[in-house]
Amino acid sequence: MAGGRPLAFDHAIAYAAVTVLAAVGMTIFGTSANRTLNSAFLALDARAWLMSALLTAALLVAFIFGYLIQDTPMAWLSPYIDPAVLAMVCIVVIPMPIGTVRQALADVLLVTPADLKQHVDEIAQEIVRRYGFISYRAYVARVGRGRQIELYFIVPAGGPPKRSEDWDLIRDDIGEAIGGEGPDRWLTIVFTTDPEWAE
Question: Domain 114-198 is in which class?
Fold first, then answer.
């Protein structure tokens, strides 16, 4: 608005080229490391480096354009190249991390993923039907990479006794149906005749 910003395009081109190489290198390094770590925070950092690389690459192209139009009839555009390109890149870049931030907030606030809750409900309903239980309660949350699942099955009072091994077989059946067994899954399965234990 105040007439643009005059630049020394030769120095700007050198700076932008080095920055692009560094940012691309960090993006590749972070992405490669995250294949092993599988961290949402590292993924966000790698995405930040990618955004930096894209931003600086756009500026590099603009700086080269600005350098080439020196001493031409288009030279009057030179002072406007830096702020104009920066404004356009920001419009594209700003929305990129919103999805990751939304997911991170959901994890912090223990928001239940709808697809996981639906999956657990379907399995619990089938177990209730198959074994003649009265009902169930399911509590599901995702904390970072971890999934916490608590299932309470209300069984009929006075029903035929089962051995501990039989209850364990039912638990195994439920665990296999839910899937995702590993260090990131915390699964609790309770059988009770008293609904208050499930509330």
Answer: alpha beta
AA identity, residue 186: W
List the chain domain ranges.
9-108, 114-198
CA distances from 129 to 162, 173, 183 (A): 18, 14, 30
H/E stretch holding 140: strand 135-143
CA torsion, ordered 176, 177, 178, 182, to nearest 10 deg? 20
Tokens found for residue 129 = 């039907």
Distance CA 123, CA 195 (A): 19
Which tokens hold the place of 52? 């930096």
Residue-wise pLDDT for 77-125, tens only, equals 888 888 888 788 778 777 767 776 776 666 666 566 778 889 999 999 9
Q: Determine the Cα–Cα distance for residues 133 and 193; give it in Å rounded to an integer.
A: 9
Do 187 and 172 touch, CB atoms closer than 8 A?
A: no
